[in-house]
Automatic annotation (TrEMBL):
<keyword id="KW-0472">Membrane</keyword>
<feature type="transmembrane region" description="Helical">
    <location>
        <begin position="77"/>
        <end position="95"/>
    </location>
</feature>
<feature type="transmembrane region" description="Helical">
    <location>
        <begin position="134"/>
        <end position="154"/>
    </location>
</feature>
<feature type="transmembrane region" description="Helical">
    <location>
        <begin position="223"/>
        <end position="242"/>
    </location>
</feature>
<dbReference type="GO" id="GO:0005765">
    <property type="term" value="C:lysosomal membrane"/>
</dbReference>
<feature type="transmembrane region" description="Helical">
    <location>
        <begin position="166"/>
        <end position="185"/>
    </location>
</feature>
<feature type="transmembrane region" description="Helical">
    <location>
        <begin position="310"/>
        <end position="333"/>
    </location>
</feature>
<dbReference type="InterPro" id="IPR011701">
    <property type="entry name" value="MFS"/>
</dbReference>
<keyword id="KW-0458">Lysosome</keyword>
<dbReference type="Pfam" id="PF07690">
    <property type="entry name" value="MFS_1"/>
</dbReference>
<feature type="transmembrane region" description="Helical">
    <location>
        <begin position="36"/>
        <end position="57"/>
    </location>
</feature>
<feature type="transmembrane region" description="Helical">
    <location>
        <begin position="286"/>
        <end position="304"/>
    </location>
</feature>
<dbReference type="InterPro" id="IPR020846">
    <property type="entry name" value="MFS_dom"/>
</dbReference>
<keyword id="KW-1133">Transmembrane helix</keyword>
<feature type="transmembrane region" description="Helical">
    <location>
        <begin position="387"/>
        <end position="409"/>
    </location>
</feature>
<dbReference type="InterPro" id="IPR052187">
    <property type="entry name" value="MFSD1"/>
</dbReference>
<feature type="domain" description="Major facilitator superfamily (MFS) profile">
    <location>
        <begin position="11"/>
        <end position="414"/>
    </location>
</feature>
């Protein structure tokens, strides 16, 4: 193992650590939804807005982040992002009101929004292209430790020490990881000095972004990400635990266990599907199969059918594996655009899912509130099966959009096929 390889692995490991925290913040509201509803006395729509602020700012930041990592490099923005996320997490943990919590959650989303694209840029610059999907899958596997922590561990910890203490600790950890990124991450493989960083040229950057957006081959991957990731972020990020408690009658801990299985299946699936895709040198068959299974599974949750807890847990694990299919969309978008625009192309694809998550979480809550019959449970609103079906129909429609778009994704055979004429290949 060469020194250069060791350095690249260490770099990726540090950023992956920050990515774990990003995933934790993304899905944490699901584990403490009941606590937040009681603490701030919110409606379902208001709770959806609180959870979705992360996704709003994350969405807005995807293209700027892609531009920044392609011009300034990931090192600086990782440190700045960590400082902002630290401030947001501390503010959220100490928030006396819903309005202050909204500001804190927004800052958290702003701070962690740079991590994923910076990580993809490091993989693209420091590692062989043929391993891109595999390494992305490994990082997703590691990152998903954060989502697993947002399930049962967060639920139990919040009950033991309070949810506020958890977010104060997360803020301190965020700052520590930012410092580690500053120490170990390097932007350029050739070791050029910071004085030789590429300068920000607005005309060139906007031209590059326009090139990615005008490329018709970019959009099927983006829409697949939008539908599948949007459904995942919206439901797993907030509504899954309350759904299982109120519709299926599970305890909070059992419901959180379902969520952890979804996250665990997603983590394993990202690694397994990325590796499978790289080995068979095909993207599209894997993407089509998984996204269509994911869409079909929503028929089960729409039915509200009673089932043994073991079966519902197995279905959540399967849903996690199927959800992981959308992780291939980053490679699909990158491989149909110029290599120098890898940050922009992956960020454009990534933006769709976060935009959908931002819109679907409050929309789900709004539809739920329309069907609320006035019931209360543990100081928070209780919703009947028909109200839940209305919200789930919104999520299912998003999943179907993603499954349909996957059929139009261009097969790249795991290599860059950009031709330079405005098309993927």
């Amino acid at each position: 193992m060469t020194d250069k390889f060791r350095r690249s692995v260490l770099m990726l490991a540090v950023v992956a650590g920050a990515y774990v925290l990003s995933f934790f913040h993304r899905f944490a509201p699901a584990g403490i939804a009941q606590d937040l509803a009681v603490a701030f006395q919110t409606t379902a729509a208001s709770l959806g807005v609180l959870a979705a602020t992360y996704f709003y700012v994350y969405t807005v930041m995807q293209v700027p982040t892609g531009i920044l990592v392609d011009t300034l490099g990931p090192r600086r923005i990782l440190l700045i992002g960590a400082v902002v996320a630290c401030a947001g997490s501390l503010l959220f943990g100490m928030a006396p009101s819903l309005d202050v919590a909204l500001v804190g959650r927004t800052l958290v989303g702003l701070g962690v929004s740079v991590t994923f694209i910076a990580m993809l840029k490091i993989i693209a610059v420091w590692f062989d292209e043929k391993h891109f999907a595999t390494l992305t899958g490994i990082c997703m596997l590691v990152g998903n430790l954060g989502s697993v922590l947002a399930g049962v561990p967060l639920s139990l910890t919040a009950q033991a020490v309070g949810w506020r203490s958890v977010f104060v600790a997360a803020g301190v950890l965020s700052l520590a990881l930012g410092v580690a990124c500053w120490i170990w991450v390097r932007d350029r493989k050739d070791g050029a000095s910071e004085a030789h960083r590429p300068k920000f040229d607005r005309t060139v950057i906007l031209g590059g972004l326009a090139q990615v957006l005008k490329n018709r081959a970019t959009w099927p991957a983006t829409l697949t990400n939008t539908g599948v990731a949007g459904a995942f972020f919206a439901f797993a990020g907030l509504w899954a635990t309350p759904y299982l408690v109120q519709v299926h009658g599970y305890s909070r801990d059992v419901a959180a266990s379902h969520l952890s299985l979804w996250f665990g299946g997603f983590a394993v699936g990202c690694l397994a599907l990325g590796t499978l895709s790289d080995r068979i040198k095909r993207r599209k068959p894997v993407l089509v199969a998984t996204t269509n299974v994911f869409a079909l599974l929503w028929l089960v949750w729409l039915s509200g059918a009673t089932m043994p807890v073991g079966l519902s847990m197995a279905l959540f694990a399967l849903m996690g594996l199927a959800t992981a299919g959308f992780s291939l969309t980053w490679a699909c978008a990158k491989e149909v655009n110029p290599p120098l625009l890898s940050g922009m192309s992956t960020s454009v694809a990534n933006m769709g899912g976060f935009l959908a998550g931002a819109l679907l979480q409050p929309l789900f809550g709004w539809v739920m509130d329309l069907g609320w019959q006035g019931g209360m449970l543990g100081g928070a609103r209780f919703y009947g099966i028909e109200a839940w079906r209305g919200g789930l129909a919104v999520i299912a429609a998003s999943a179907c959009l993603g499954a349909a778009a996957a059929w139009w994704v261009q097969e790249t055979r795991c290599r860059n096929v950009w031709r330079g004429d405005g098309h993927g290949g």
